[in-house]
Amino acid sequence: MKVIEITDYCKRYDGVAAVEGVTLKVEYGELFGLIGPDGAGKTTLLRAICTLLTPDEGKILVMGKDVTQSIMDIRSLVGYMPQRFSLYQDLSVEQNLRFFADLFGVTEGKRERRLLQLFEFSRLAPFKKRKAGELSGGMKQKLSLSCALIHTPEILVLDEPTYGVDPISRQEFWEILRSIQKEKTTILVSTAYMDEADLCDRVALMHQGKITMVGTPEKIKASFHYHLYRLEGKDVRFLRDFFQKLPSVRSTQLFGDTVHVSFCKKPALSDWKNWQRDSRGNLKRWASQPPSMEDVFMESTEKER
Questions:
Q1: Range of the domain at 270
Q2: What domain count does the chain have?
Q3: Could you give the CA distance from residue 241 to residue 249 in angstroms, rounded to a whole number?
């Protein structure tokens, strides 16, 4: 069952395309990731799905309903968590939750039961009297998520929910998302963290307003057809520049204190020995490297250019 169907969606600002010709489908019950850097058009697309932006071209259906015609119906189905913390800083955790319960018309009978559920899964019960503005970054994100879930939506749309959050809180947040998914909630989440793509059922890679690839993380990484190696040396920037000039090299990317180099043809041991000599001994170690989502993304953007 198609929960979200996007067909040739376009959105422009002052004549510049923020999203251009996107076609995408999200299935019932899946955790779908929209992966791309800042400025890729992720937020524009998510806001359109939540009826906050109208298409310049194309169509978006949510549970078969058009986002331009069934605005209130769709908003009752969707829980939306924007990228920036947008709750009331001077209200306590509990007061924020009760405010959003009122906003979404959650009945008194359901409200108390729902608050107990949300406090349990978010682990915010010990902090329910604390003001939202005094929470840590990870706790703020949990509160935002809880407010988006207060009316038990069928679809959850999250815009970079782990942005700026420490690694432990990020891990806890994704564990929470998996528990929500088990309740048959369809989740659409955007992120600029490429490693989070592996936590999704399916992903779409987005760059400069366009979708470049769609599929499971395994399928997308399997589409990388070049020979990838991880290189270590005294000066990784020198190594990157050195290998960039070789005709057999497809691409080079800095990864911390290493360089990932993809080759059109698998290098022989004699090639490595020659490169070690020609790089004036800079090249110390090399090893075959399974492609990561970031490797595939960088390769796809190279093709776009």
A1: 225-304
A2: 2
A3: 11
Both 186 and 296 in one domain: the answer is no
213: CATH: 3.40.50.300
Residue 185 and residue 202 in one domain: yes
Domain at 247, CATH number = 3.30.70.100
- Are 36 and 136 in a shared domain? yes
Let me know whether 212 and 232 are in one domain.
no
Co-location of 132 and 67 in the same domain? yes
Per-residue pLDDT tens listing for the chain (305 residues): 789 999 999 999 988 999 999 999 999 999 999 999 999 999 999 999 999 999 999 999 999 999 999 999 999 999 999 887 678 889 999 999 999 898 888 888 888 889 988 888 888 899 999 999 998 888 888 899 898 989 989 999 999 988 877 888 888 889 888 988 998 999 999 999 999 999 999 999 999 999 999 999 999 999 988 999 999 998 999 999 999 999 999 989 898 899 999 999 999 999 999 999 999 889 999 999 999 998 899 887 766 55
